[in-house]
Write a structure and sequence with these properties.
4 helices, 18% helix, single chain, Alpha-Beta Plaits, 2 domains, elongated
Length: 198
């Protein structure tokens, strides 16, 4: 891509770092573009698993709703034969290592927006909008889940800091941002754009 990448939340004029509010118990950030693709293959196919390991540098998560990762990208379990690979640009090396087995690599292009929700009341904001049990121990670091957020399909990925990454289709990003911002008002909310990542 030759020009600057269009961010789906750019029209909100979010500033890197956001509004600093010492009383805010919730922080909402629009993270910059992250390349991603869908990987499909049979989880009981040894050749597929070995090829994936060679192409990614780590084992795919085989347990439902788990996440695995390396230094620069991560794999989120979406189903018994489907993973979302975040941070991998292109996937040529992965495709080469999977050349001898049945698989599919589907680039998402600019299809995803990642919104980061953090702060001591982040789970309370999500509880207003999402049916997942965030307190039951099933949604901690190293886990992920597909669910709905105010009627919109999303993937939720808890972080080690108690925050969450919310992955939504870019066409729904504006709605999701506004509904999260509204749900966070009662707790005090800081809004901004995430820093560019290497």
């Amino acid at each position: 891509m030759t020009g600057p990448r269009h961010q789906p939340l750019a029209h909100l004029a979010l500033l890197a770092g956001g509004h600093s509010d010492a009383d805010a118990a919730v922080t909402l950030r629009a993270l910059p573009y992250c390349p991603s693709l869908i990987l499909r293959g049979e989880s009981d196919d040894v050749a597929f698993l070995e090829g994936s390991r060679a192409g990614l540098g780590f084992d795919l998560p085989l347990a439902p709703n788990h996440v695995a990762g390396g230094n620069s990208f991560s794999a989120l379990w979406l189903g018994p034969s489907e993973w979302l690979i975040l941070g991998l640009n292109g996937g040529e090396r992965l495709g080469e290592n999977l050349g001898g087995c049945r698989h599919a690599l589907v680039p998402n292009g600019d299809g995803l927006q990642i919104i980061e929700l953090s702060g001591e009341r982040a789970a309370d904001v999500l509880a207003k909008l999402c049916p997942l049990d965030l307190q039951g121990g099933e949604m901690g670091p190293g886990r992920c889940a597909r669910s709905i957020l105010a009627g919109i399909t999303m993937t939720l990925w808890p972080g080690v800091d108690g925050g969450y990454r919310i992955l939504v289709g870019r066409s729904f990003a504006d709605y999701v941002w506004r509904i999260l911002a509204d749900a966070g008002l009662e707790f005090g909310i800081s809004l901004g754009a995430g820093e560019e990542r290497a």
